[in-house]
Design brief:
single chain; about 350 residues; alpha+beta; Creatine Amidinohydrolase; about 35% helix; about 25% strand
Amino acid sequence: MSAAEIAHKLKLIRSVLADTGAAGVRLRGTDWFAWATAGGSNTVLLAAESGVAEVLVTQDGAWILTDEIEAQRLQDEEVPTGYDWAIDPWAAADQREAFVASAARGTVLSDQPIQGEAALPAELVQAKRTLLFSEIERYRQVGRLASEAMTQTLAKAKPEWTEYQLAGAGAAALWARGLHPTLTLVAGERRLPMYRHATAKPEPLGQMAMLVFCARGFGLYANLTRFVSFSPLSSDQEQLHQQVRDIEAVALNACQSGTPLNQVYYTLKGAYEQQGFANAIAEHHQGGTTGYLSREVVANPTTEDPLVAPIAMAWNPSLRGAKIEDTFLLHDDGSLENLTFDPNWPFVEVQGRKRPVPLVRA
Protein backbone atom coordinates (compact mmCIF):
# COMPACT_ATOMS: atom_id res chain seq x y z
CA MET A 1 0.00 0.00 0.00
CA SER A 2 2.85 2.42 0.76
CA ALA A 3 4.30 1.91 -2.73
CA ALA A 4 0.97 2.83 -4.34
CA GLU A 5 0.60 5.87 -2.08
CA ILE A 6 4.12 7.10 -2.86
CA ALA A 7 3.52 6.61 -6.59
CA HIS A 8 0.29 8.63 -6.32
CA LYS A 9 2.06 11.48 -4.55
CA LEU A 10 4.98 11.53 -6.97
CA LYS A 11 2.47 11.80 -9.81
CA LEU A 12 0.80 14.70 -8.02
CA ILE A 13 4.12 16.48 -7.46
CA ARG A 14 5.05 16.07 -11.12
CA SER A 15 1.72 17.52 -12.20
CA VAL A 16 2.54 20.56 -10.06
CA LEU A 17 5.93 20.79 -11.77
CA ALA A 18 4.22 20.69 -15.15
CA ASP A 19 1.71 23.37 -14.14
CA THR A 20 4.30 25.73 -12.67
CA GLY A 21 7.22 25.10 -15.01
CA ALA A 22 9.47 24.46 -12.02
CA ALA A 23 12.33 21.96 -12.25
CA GLY A 24 11.97 20.26 -8.89
CA VAL A 25 10.24 20.01 -5.52
CA ARG A 26 12.41 19.78 -2.41
CA LEU A 27 10.75 18.77 0.88
CA ARG A 28 12.68 19.35 4.11
CA GLY A 29 10.12 19.49 6.92
CA THR A 30 9.27 16.52 9.11
CA ASP A 31 5.64 16.94 8.05
CA TRP A 32 6.34 16.93 4.32
CA PHE A 33 8.84 14.09 4.54
CA ALA A 34 6.24 11.91 6.28
CA TRP A 35 3.62 12.87 3.70
CA ALA A 36 5.85 12.12 0.70
CA THR A 37 7.09 8.78 2.10
CA ALA A 38 3.72 7.39 3.26
CA GLY A 39 4.49 7.81 6.93
CA GLY A 40 8.28 7.63 7.01
CA SER A 41 10.21 9.67 9.55
CA ASN A 42 13.29 11.85 9.07
CA THR A 43 13.21 12.85 12.75
CA VAL A 44 16.12 12.45 15.14
CA LEU A 45 15.79 15.60 17.25
CA LEU A 46 12.14 15.40 18.29
CA ALA A 47 11.55 19.14 18.46
CA ALA A 48 13.14 19.97 15.08
CA GLU A 49 10.96 21.16 12.19
CA SER A 50 13.26 19.47 9.68
CA GLY A 51 15.09 16.17 9.94
CA VAL A 52 18.09 14.20 8.75
CA ALA A 53 16.82 13.57 5.24
CA GLU A 54 14.99 15.40 2.46
CA VAL A 55 12.91 14.50 -0.58
CA LEU A 56 13.78 15.77 -4.06
CA VAL A 57 11.43 15.15 -7.00
CA THR A 58 11.90 16.13 -10.64
CA GLN A 59 10.07 15.01 -13.76
CA ASP A 60 12.73 12.34 -14.28
CA GLY A 61 13.61 11.19 -10.77
CA ALA A 62 12.80 11.03 -7.07
CA TRP A 63 15.45 10.82 -4.36
CA ILE A 64 15.95 10.75 -0.64
CA LEU A 65 18.81 13.12 0.18
CA THR A 66 20.70 12.14 3.32
CA ASP A 67 24.16 11.36 4.67
CA GLU A 68 26.15 8.24 5.43
CA ILE A 69 25.18 8.28 9.11
CA GLU A 70 21.46 7.93 8.43
CA ALA A 71 21.10 6.20 5.06
CA GLN A 72 21.11 2.53 6.05
CA ARG A 73 18.62 2.99 8.90
CA LEU A 74 16.29 5.02 6.73
CA GLN A 75 16.46 2.44 3.95
CA ASP A 76 15.80 -0.42 6.37
CA GLU A 77 13.13 1.17 8.55
CA GLU A 78 11.58 4.34 7.15
CA VAL A 79 11.58 4.47 3.32
CA PRO A 80 11.78 0.93 1.96
CA THR A 81 10.43 1.68 -1.52
CA GLY A 82 9.65 4.32 -4.11
CA TYR A 83 12.82 6.44 -4.12
CA ASP A 84 16.41 6.44 -5.27
CA TRP A 85 19.07 7.62 -2.84
CA ALA A 86 21.61 10.41 -2.92
CA ILE A 87 23.98 9.77 -0.02
CA ASP A 88 26.78 12.16 0.95
CA PRO A 89 29.47 12.22 3.63
CA TRP A 90 28.08 13.90 6.75
CA ALA A 91 30.79 16.57 6.61
CA ALA A 92 30.19 17.46 2.94
CA ALA A 93 26.90 19.34 2.80
CA ASP A 94 28.04 21.11 -0.34
CA GLN A 95 27.83 17.81 -2.22
CA ARG A 96 24.08 17.65 -1.57
CA GLU A 97 23.60 21.12 -2.97
CA ALA A 98 25.65 20.21 -6.02
CA PHE A 99 23.48 17.14 -6.58
CA VAL A 100 20.26 19.19 -6.36
CA ALA A 101 21.62 21.74 -8.82
CA SER A 102 22.56 18.97 -11.24
CA ALA A 103 19.28 17.04 -10.92
CA ALA A 104 16.95 20.06 -11.00
CA ARG A 105 18.17 22.53 -13.59
CA GLY A 106 15.81 25.38 -12.89
CA THR A 107 13.51 26.70 -10.19
CA VAL A 108 13.11 24.49 -7.13
CA LEU A 109 9.95 24.67 -5.04
CA SER A 110 10.27 23.93 -1.32
CA ASP A 111 8.31 23.86 1.93
CA GLN A 112 11.28 25.63 3.53
CA PRO A 113 12.73 27.65 0.64
CA ILE A 114 16.27 28.94 0.88
CA GLN A 115 18.01 31.39 -1.43
CA GLY A 116 16.93 30.87 -5.02
CA GLU A 117 14.03 28.54 -4.16
CA ALA A 118 10.31 29.32 -4.24
CA ALA A 119 7.42 28.35 -1.95
CA LEU A 120 5.16 25.40 -2.65
CA PRO A 121 1.95 26.24 -4.52
CA ALA A 122 -1.41 26.13 -2.74
CA GLU A 123 -2.46 23.07 -4.74
CA LEU A 124 0.25 20.94 -3.16
CA VAL A 125 -0.31 22.36 0.32
CA GLN A 126 -4.00 21.47 0.09
CA ALA A 127 -3.12 17.96 -1.09
CA LYS A 128 -1.18 17.37 2.13
CA ARG A 129 -4.20 18.36 4.22
CA THR A 130 -6.71 16.22 2.31
CA LEU A 131 -6.26 12.64 3.45
CA LEU A 132 -6.10 9.51 1.33
CA PHE A 133 -7.71 6.26 2.46
CA SER A 134 -4.33 4.77 3.39
CA GLU A 135 -3.54 7.86 5.47
CA ILE A 136 -6.89 7.62 7.24
CA GLU A 137 -6.17 4.01 8.14
CA ARG A 138 -2.86 5.02 9.71
CA TYR A 139 -4.52 7.97 11.44
CA ARG A 140 -7.07 5.68 13.07
CA GLN A 141 -4.24 3.61 14.50
CA VAL A 142 -2.45 6.68 15.86
CA GLY A 143 -5.63 8.05 17.42
CA ARG A 144 -6.50 4.77 19.08
CA LEU A 145 -3.04 4.33 20.56
CA ALA A 146 -2.88 7.92 21.79
CA SER A 147 -6.24 7.71 23.52
CA GLU A 148 -5.32 4.38 25.13
CA ALA A 149 -2.09 5.93 26.42
CA MET A 150 -4.08 8.82 27.89
CA THR A 151 -6.51 6.49 29.66
CA GLN A 152 -3.71 4.33 31.04
CA THR A 153 -1.83 7.35 32.35
CA LEU A 154 -4.70 9.06 34.15
CA ALA A 155 -6.07 5.79 35.52
CA LYS A 156 -2.91 5.35 37.58
CA ALA A 157 -2.14 9.01 38.41
CA LYS A 158 -2.07 10.02 42.07
CA PRO A 159 -2.78 13.39 43.68
CA GLU A 160 0.67 13.45 45.25
CA TRP A 161 2.37 13.05 41.87
CA THR A 162 4.05 16.16 40.57
CA GLU A 163 3.10 17.61 37.23
CA TYR A 164 6.50 16.43 36.01
CA GLN A 165 5.63 12.86 36.99
CA LEU A 166 2.30 12.97 35.16
CA ALA A 167 3.90 14.40 32.03
CA GLY A 168 6.61 11.75 32.21
CA ALA A 169 4.09 8.94 32.66
CA GLY A 170 2.15 10.22 29.68
CA ALA A 171 5.26 10.42 27.53
CA ALA A 172 6.25 6.90 28.58
CA ALA A 173 2.81 5.55 27.65
CA LEU A 174 3.09 7.15 24.21
CA TRP A 175 6.64 5.89 23.59
CA ALA A 176 5.56 2.39 24.64
CA ARG A 177 3.07 2.49 21.76
CA GLY A 178 5.57 3.83 19.24
CA LEU A 179 4.27 7.42 19.28
CA HIS A 180 6.32 10.60 19.62
CA PRO A 181 5.20 12.68 22.65
CA THR A 182 5.63 15.99 20.87
CA LEU A 183 3.57 17.75 23.54
CA THR A 184 2.49 16.74 27.05
CA LEU A 185 0.93 19.66 28.90
CA VAL A 186 -0.04 19.24 32.55
CA ALA A 187 -1.86 21.51 34.97
CA GLY A 188 -2.66 20.47 38.50
CA GLU A 189 -5.35 21.85 40.78
CA ARG A 190 -3.62 25.18 41.54
CA ARG A 191 -2.42 26.06 38.05
CA LEU A 192 -5.41 24.74 36.10
CA PRO A 193 -7.56 27.90 36.36
CA MET A 194 -4.54 30.13 35.71
CA TYR A 195 -2.98 28.98 32.42
CA ARG A 196 -4.25 27.58 29.13
CA HIS A 197 -0.82 26.31 27.98
CA ALA A 198 0.40 24.86 31.26
CA THR A 199 3.80 23.27 30.79
CA ALA A 200 4.52 20.88 33.66
CA LYS A 201 6.11 22.11 36.90
CA PRO A 202 7.52 20.30 39.96
CA GLU A 203 4.46 20.70 42.19
CA PRO A 204 1.85 18.16 43.32
CA LEU A 205 -1.27 17.69 41.24
CA GLY A 206 -3.71 18.07 44.11
CA GLN A 207 -7.34 17.09 43.60
CA MET A 208 -7.60 17.67 39.83
CA ALA A 209 -5.32 17.62 36.81
CA MET A 210 -5.47 18.20 33.07
CA LEU A 211 -3.28 16.26 30.63
CA VAL A 212 -2.89 17.27 26.98
CA PHE A 213 -1.30 15.13 24.25
CA CYS A 214 -0.06 15.97 20.80
CA ALA A 215 1.07 12.48 19.80
CA ARG A 216 2.76 11.80 16.46
CA GLY A 217 2.81 8.53 14.58
CA PHE A 218 3.54 8.01 10.85
CA GLY A 219 3.92 11.80 10.85
CA LEU A 220 0.24 12.27 11.81
CA TYR A 221 -0.88 14.08 14.96
CA ALA A 222 -3.47 12.85 17.44
CA ASN A 223 -4.46 15.75 19.70
CA LEU A 224 -6.56 15.23 22.83
CA THR A 225 -7.18 16.62 26.31
CA ARG A 226 -8.49 14.82 29.40
CA PHE A 227 -9.10 15.59 33.08
CA VAL A 228 -8.79 13.45 36.20
CA SER A 229 -10.33 14.38 39.57
CA PHE A 230 -9.45 12.67 42.85
CA SER A 231 -12.62 13.92 44.55
CA PRO A 232 -16.20 14.41 43.34
CA LEU A 233 -16.67 17.41 41.10
CA SER A 234 -18.45 20.40 42.59
CA SER A 235 -21.61 21.64 40.91
CA ASP A 236 -19.64 24.62 39.56
CA GLN A 237 -17.02 22.32 38.04
CA GLU A 238 -19.69 20.09 36.52
CA GLN A 239 -21.37 23.12 34.97
CA LEU A 240 -18.09 24.49 33.59
CA HIS A 241 -17.27 21.23 31.81
CA GLN A 242 -20.81 20.99 30.48
CA GLN A 243 -20.58 24.51 29.09
CA VAL A 244 -17.33 23.66 27.29
CA ARG A 245 -18.97 20.57 25.79
CA ASP A 246 -21.93 22.64 24.61
CA ILE A 247 -19.63 25.24 23.05
CA GLU A 248 -17.70 22.53 21.24
CA ALA A 249 -20.91 20.96 19.93
CA VAL A 250 -21.86 24.21 18.20
CA ALA A 251 -18.47 24.31 16.46
CA LEU A 252 -18.59 20.65 15.42
CA ASN A 253 -22.05 21.15 13.93
CA ALA A 254 -20.62 23.95 11.79
CA CYS A 255 -17.91 21.77 10.26
CA GLN A 256 -18.93 20.83 6.73
CA SER A 257 -16.87 20.50 3.58
CA GLY A 258 -16.51 23.93 2.01
CA THR A 259 -16.98 25.84 5.27
CA PRO A 260 -14.22 28.45 5.78
CA LEU A 261 -12.26 28.14 9.01
CA ASN A 262 -13.05 31.71 10.02
CA GLN A 263 -16.74 30.84 9.88
CA VAL A 264 -16.15 28.12 12.47
CA TYR A 265 -14.17 30.65 14.51
CA TYR A 266 -17.09 33.09 14.53
CA THR A 267 -19.45 30.24 15.37
CA LEU A 268 -17.31 29.50 18.42
CA LYS A 269 -17.27 33.19 19.31
CA GLY A 270 -21.04 33.24 19.31
CA ALA A 271 -21.23 30.06 21.39
CA TYR A 272 -18.97 31.56 24.07
CA GLU A 273 -21.11 34.68 24.16
CA GLN A 274 -24.28 32.61 24.50
CA GLN A 275 -22.76 30.84 27.51
CA GLY A 276 -21.86 34.17 29.11
CA PHE A 277 -18.11 34.18 28.34
CA ALA A 278 -17.76 36.88 25.71
CA ASN A 279 -13.99 37.30 26.14
CA ALA A 280 -13.06 33.60 26.34
CA ILE A 281 -12.27 33.29 22.64
CA ALA A 282 -9.45 35.82 23.13
CA GLU A 283 -7.89 33.83 25.97
CA HIS A 284 -6.71 30.85 23.90
CA HIS A 285 -6.62 29.72 20.28
CA GLN A 286 -9.51 27.47 19.37
CA GLY A 287 -7.75 24.89 17.22
CA GLY A 288 -8.30 24.18 13.55
CA THR A 289 -7.20 21.62 11.00
CA THR A 290 -4.59 19.01 11.88
CA GLY A 291 -2.78 16.18 10.14
CA TYR A 292 0.97 16.21 9.47
CA LEU A 293 1.24 19.20 11.80
CA SER A 294 -0.36 19.51 15.21
CA ARG A 295 -2.30 22.36 13.61
CA GLU A 296 -2.10 22.77 9.86
CA VAL A 297 -4.14 25.97 10.10
CA VAL A 298 -5.27 27.63 13.34
CA ALA A 299 -8.68 29.21 12.83
CA ASN A 300 -8.88 32.97 13.39
CA PRO A 301 -11.00 35.84 12.01
CA THR A 302 -9.03 35.99 8.74
CA THR A 303 -8.43 32.30 7.88
CA GLU A 304 -10.59 31.75 4.81
CA ASP A 305 -9.15 28.29 4.10
CA PRO A 306 -12.10 25.97 3.49
CA LEU A 307 -12.58 22.57 5.07
CA VAL A 308 -12.06 20.10 2.22
CA ALA A 309 -13.07 16.57 3.17
CA PRO A 310 -11.62 14.19 4.10
CA ILE A 311 -9.70 16.38 6.53
CA ALA A 312 -8.69 16.12 10.19
CA MET A 313 -9.58 18.77 12.76
CA ALA A 314 -8.81 19.36 16.41
CA TRP A 315 -10.85 22.06 18.16
CA ASN A 316 -10.00 22.93 21.76
CA PRO A 317 -12.54 25.33 23.28
CA SER A 318 -11.74 26.16 26.89
CA LEU A 319 -12.83 28.11 29.93
CA ARG A 320 -10.82 28.77 33.07
CA GLY A 321 -10.51 25.30 34.58
CA ALA A 322 -12.15 23.30 31.77
CA LYS A 323 -11.23 22.31 28.23
CA ILE A 324 -12.22 19.71 25.65
CA GLU A 325 -10.28 18.35 22.68
CA ASP A 326 -10.28 15.38 20.35
CA THR A 327 -9.10 14.76 16.81
CA PHE A 328 -11.98 14.40 14.36
CA LEU A 329 -12.06 13.33 10.73
CA LEU A 330 -14.55 15.14 8.50
CA HIS A 331 -15.73 12.66 5.84
CA ASP A 332 -17.03 13.42 2.36
CA ASP A 333 -20.61 12.75 3.50
CA GLY A 334 -20.32 15.38 6.24
CA SER A 335 -20.06 12.92 9.11
CA LEU A 336 -17.48 13.31 11.86
CA GLU A 337 -15.35 10.41 13.09
CA ASN A 338 -13.64 10.80 16.45
CA LEU A 339 -10.16 9.35 15.93
CA THR A 340 -9.19 9.69 19.61
CA PHE A 341 -12.25 8.15 21.27
CA ASP A 342 -11.50 5.46 23.86
CA PRO A 343 -14.62 3.52 24.93
CA ASN A 344 -12.94 2.86 28.28
CA TRP A 345 -13.00 6.57 29.13
CA PRO A 346 -16.16 7.99 30.77
CA PHE A 347 -18.36 9.95 28.39
CA VAL A 348 -21.74 11.55 27.91
CA GLU A 349 -23.68 12.06 24.70
CA VAL A 350 -23.82 15.63 23.41
CA GLN A 351 -25.98 16.07 20.31
CA GLY A 352 -25.42 12.45 19.36
CA ARG A 353 -21.66 12.44 19.94
CA LYS A 354 -19.81 10.66 22.73
CA ARG A 355 -17.80 13.34 24.50
CA PRO A 356 -15.33 12.86 27.37
CA VAL A 357 -16.02 13.92 30.93
CA PRO A 358 -13.48 14.14 33.76
CA LEU A 359 -12.39 10.78 35.15
CA VAL A 360 -13.46 10.88 38.81
CA ARG A 361 -11.36 8.65 41.04
CA ALA A 362 -12.72 9.64 44.44
